[in-house]
Amino acid sequence: MSAPVVCFRCGDRYDDETRVRCACGEPLWFDTPRTEFTWEDCPDIEGMWRYEPLLPIDRPEGVARAAGGTPLVRSSGLDDAAGCRVYVKDESENPTGAYKDRGSAVAVPYAIEAGNDVVGTISYGNMGISTAAHATSLDRECLVLVPEEIPSGRLELIAQYEPTIVQVSGDYGALYSDGLSLSESLPISILVSDDPARISGYKTVVFEIYESLAPETPDALALPASSGGFASGVWRGLCDLKALGLLEELPRLYLVQTAAADPITRAFESGAAEPTALSPDETGETIAHSIGNPDPPSGARALAAVRDTGGAVVSVSDAEIRTAKRQFAVDGGFCVEPAAATPLAGLTRLSERGEIASDERVVVVPTGTGFKELGVGDVSISTERTSRADLPELLESLLDVN
Ligand SMILES: [Zn+2]
pTM, whole model, 2 decimals? Predict the structure, then answer.
């Protein structure tokens, strides 16, 4: 195993490599690898394990080998909507259709190396699906704690990997801290959103973006934000590249939240160092249910990332998310889940505010596929685009035209 874990806020270091939280309460992450590194040093391996020298474990077996290596697509059809030159980093092409696989690909084998035969997670969405897939591919037990009212389609997606699923009644949102105590008292690793090994997996998305674009560099990156874990991984990746001499100036980091639950946006606008947890009457329903954490565990770190890079946090409404989802499909050809459409909606807003120039190169990260999400699109489109015909009449009319 590798480097000690450190705290971004107070700088404390811990040699206990399974520790998740600093004494000050903030989540920990692995320090920059102390190694000389250039892109030429990357082993000739597909996917995120090309950056194995910068990760805390060696390349594992199983579906983890299929994680990462997603395409970066110059998507000029989206330029008008975003108000800049758009590159799409399509994270839907991971094994379970979401960026979470980069985190699970490191965190699950890491937990097993640390001696835990059972891994688990608290999620009824992409993280539950991803963790279960990675555990079973290494022939390990997995425990997924889901809320009592989980939609049947979501349950089916998790259950296909045959983990142990427990439907928990009561305050599901409060399970996060209980999950950490379960990890401490039982031989099981509950891999939450800001687990240090997960964060180290997320940073590979940055390595891929920079290696693909080189010698060009992006002016900004735009991604959805919920727990703050992904933003933390992206910031960590940027800081690693700078420390390794592969990047001079950090790009602006733009985080986009759903207006239905946006504690990070509120803290950004008020100048606070950390978000204040939202009470149930301060949150609402949203189609972007993959995001919307009312009490983000990595919220302070996400805010620090945005301020360090000169970026911003914005919130968007469900109406704006629907528009962006449609633009992704019609103008880009991408099928993204509502949460993954938020960065495009955020860019529309930021460029209208004059924070982004039309000649700037901006990487948008749709974090998950829309193919898992039915019933969230605009139903009127299906009706408008569909007509009916009898086969003989259809053939006749087509032949007439020709
Ligand atoms: Zn600390």
Answer: 0.95
